[in-house]
Amino acid sequence: MIDFELPSFIQNQNQLIKMVAEQAMRPFSRDLDENEHTRPDAFVDMTWPFTKEMMKRDLKRIQTAIDANGVSKNGSAPKKEKKVNMGALSLILMIEQLSWGDTGQYLCLPHPMLAGAAVSSSGTPEQQIKFLSRFTEGDPKWGAMAITEPGAGSDNSSMRTTAVLDPDTNEWILNGEKIFITSGGMALEESDGICIVWATIDPDAGRAGIKSFVVEAHNPGVTVAKPEHKLGIRASDTVSLHFNNARVPYENLLGNPEIKQKSRKGFKGAMKTFDSSRPAVAASAMGTARAALEFTLETLEKEGVVIDYRKSKFEMTAVEADLMEMEARYKGAWLLTLRATAQIAHNESNRLEASMCKFRAGEAVTWITQKAVELLGPLGYSRDMLVEKWMRDAKINDIYEGTKQINQLIVARSILGYTRRELK
Q1: Residues 198, 210: Cα–Cα separation, whole Å
Q2: pLDDT per residue over 98-150, tens digit each?
Q3: pTM for the full predicted model
Q4: Catalytic residue annotation
Q5: Among 212, 297, 306, 217, which residue's Cα sits nearest to residue 259?
Q6: Are 252 and 196 spatial neighbours (Cβ–Cβ below 8 Å)?
Q7: What is the CATH class of 8-72+82-252?
Q8: Strands 194-200 and 143-146
Q9: Are 358 and 278 in contact (CB under 8 A)?
Q10: Is 98 exposed, middle or buried (0-12, 13-18, 19+ CB in 10 A)?
Q11: Which of 14, 191, 231, 253 has a 20 to 30 A CA-CA distance from 71?
C-alpha cells in the first residue's frame, strides 16, 4: 500500500517553518521591500540554528556513504543499500513555506543554498565534507554561485571568466566579472561562506573548458561590487563580483583535480547543479503563488465570492472561473515540482522533469499573481496589500536558473531526442 503521509520529522519541521514564515517574515515584508538589501535579521536569527542542524544531518549522510564505500570486516566490498534521500523533500517543502512568507527574505537563508547544490553535484564526498562543514557551527554563513556574466547569460559557452594554473604555486588564478549573484556579499564579505565560481580553463574549448571552483570568503583579489537594484525580491542580497588575479588553491576545483582539456565533465557538473536547483526555484515560485492564491480567496470570500465546485466552468461567473484556473495552475505546477524532487530523493536523473517544473512554475506564479492583482482591483494594485509585491517577486522565477525559453528548449530536446545543435 502506498503511503503519502509525511514522516514525523518533516511534519514537525513544517510546523516550525510555518511559524517562522508567519512571525519572522510576513510582518517585515513591506519594510524590507522598501529598504532594499537590508539584512532580514529576525529571519536570519530564527533560522540559523535550524539550518545548522539540517547541515549536520546532511553531512552525516555523506559520511555514512563514504564509510559504506570502504571495505567490510571480511575484506569484501559492502553491499550498497539504496536509500531514499528524504532530505530533498524536506528542503523543497521548507523552501515553499519560506517563500510563502517572503521570497526575498528566503533568499537570505543562512545556508549553502546554490553553492551547496554545486558542491553536492560536482564535488567529491570529501570535498562536500570539507566545504559544507563550516555551515554547522559558529555565526550565520551563506553560500553563493557565480555563473552569469555581462556577456554570458543563457549561453554559458561564451563565458569569459578565466582560471589559469600557476605552475610555480600550484594555484588557480581567476580573472573576470560575474553579475546577479544571490547572497554574494553575505557569503564572501559578511561571513565565512563560500561561492562556487564557474570559469573556463580554455576559452577556445567552449563548454568543454568550463570548470567550477570554490572561492572562500575574504579571498584576496575578489571584490564585491555594486548591489543590484531589482524589480522584486528586494530583500535579497544580489551583487556583482570582480576577480582580479584571485588565487584559489588547486584542490578547490570541484571534482577530479586532473584537468583534461577536452573533457565536458565541468560543464556537465554545472548542468547537474541546475537539475537540483531548478526544483528548488519552482518550489519557491509555488510558495509565492500559494500566498497570492490564499489571500485572494480569503479576501473575495469576505465579499461573498465563493467557488462552487459543483458547477461546470461554463456556469460560473468570470471571477469564479479565474479563481478555479488559479488553483489548477498552482496545483499542476506543484505536482510537477514534487515529481522532480522525488527523482532527486531516489537518485534518479531528473533533467527533463527539473526543466518542466521550473518553466511551468515560473509561468504559473507570474499569471497567478497578476490575476490576484487584477481580481482585487485598486486595493490589489496599492501598497496597502502585499499582492503587488508578490507580483513583482514572481517574475524572477521566469528568469533565474535558466529562463522559461531555455527550459522549454531543454524539454523539447529531451522529448524529441534532438541535440543542442539540431534544436536552438
Answers
A1: 7
A2: 999 999 999 999 999 999 999 988 899 999 999 999 999 999 999 999 999 99
A3: 0.91
A4: 401
A5: 212
A6: no
A7: mainly beta
A8: parallel
A9: yes
A10: buried
A11: 253
